[in-house]
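Appendix B, example 12.
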Amino acid sequence: MTQRALVLLDSIALVNATHAGTVIVSGSHGGLSASHFVTAQTHKPFAVAFNDAGGGKDDAGRVALRELQAVVCWPFCMRTLRPALARHKTGWTTAWSTA
């Protein structure tokens, strides 16, 4: 089994080429605009976890589940000053991609 580095990013806008192949826990919502930060990368992370933004209209807070492979969402009610670290510590998820 391949071991993957875990990266905590409070904002998915901080993703870059050095994160290729890693598992990212992000403080960002899982909306379409957030997923574009990942899809814009030539060398993509292995998996990304996003905030579900409470779902939102037409489940907009979880669009990244459809746009990306290997994605999970965690509850938006877990807002803190260090969102990525809080998500990593609790391990709660509300949805995940099936791809």
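The chain has one domain: 6-96. Residues 6-96 form one domain.
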